[in-house]
Amino acid sequence: MPTVQQIPGPYRLYFYSFDCTEPPHVHVQRERMVCKFWLDPLMLCDNHGFTPHELRKIRHLIERYNDHIMEAWYEHCGETPDYD
């Protein structure tokens, strides 16, 4: 599970290697809570435990660091434009 480095805050942003066949996305974890956001377009895919307020904070964090997260995605997964 590669972790996206240099993202401040209490969250761990990471990818699963077996998810590289899906469109770019990131998993976010804090304690036992986890969610998944699609990156383009940015939208919540799944949530387990985060409140709506905290999901907005996470969304803003992903927006702020989107270029860095996408770079980490492609560095890990490579260019995979066909996700069908």
Question: Your description of this structure?
Answer:
There is one protein chain. The chain is an alpha+beta fold and 84 residues long. The chain has one domain. Helices cover 30% and strands 27% of the residues. The protein is built from 2 helices and 4 strands; from the N terminus they run E-E-E-E-H-H. A 4-stranded antiparallel beta sheet has the order 1-2-3-4. A hairpin with a 2-residue loop joins strand 3 and strand 4. The longest helix has 13 residues. The chain is globular, with a radius of gyration of 12 Å. The mean pLDDT is 92. It comes from Candidatus Moduliflexus flocculans. Pfam families: DUF4160.
- What structural category do the secondary elements indicate? alpha+beta
Number of strands: 4
Radius of gyration: 12 Å
Strand content: 25-35%
Report the span from N to C terminus.
23 Å
Q: Which bin fits the share of residues in helices?
A: 25-40%
Number of domains: 1
Major sheet: size, sense and barrel closure? 4 strands, antiparallel
Q: What characteristic shape results from the CA principal axes?
A: globular
Low-confidence stretches: none
Supply the number of helical segments: 2
Helix and strand element order: EEEEHH
SSE topology sketch:
Layout: E1 12-14, E2 25-30, E3 33-39, E4 42-48, H1 52-64, H2 66-77
Antiparallel strand pairs: 1-2, 2-3, 3-4
Give the key terms.
30% helix, four-stranded antiparallel sheet, 2 helices, 4 strands, 84 residues, alpha+beta
Quick rundown:
With 84 residues, the chain is an alpha+beta fold. It is built from 2 helices and 4 strands; from the N terminus they run E-E-E-E-H-H.
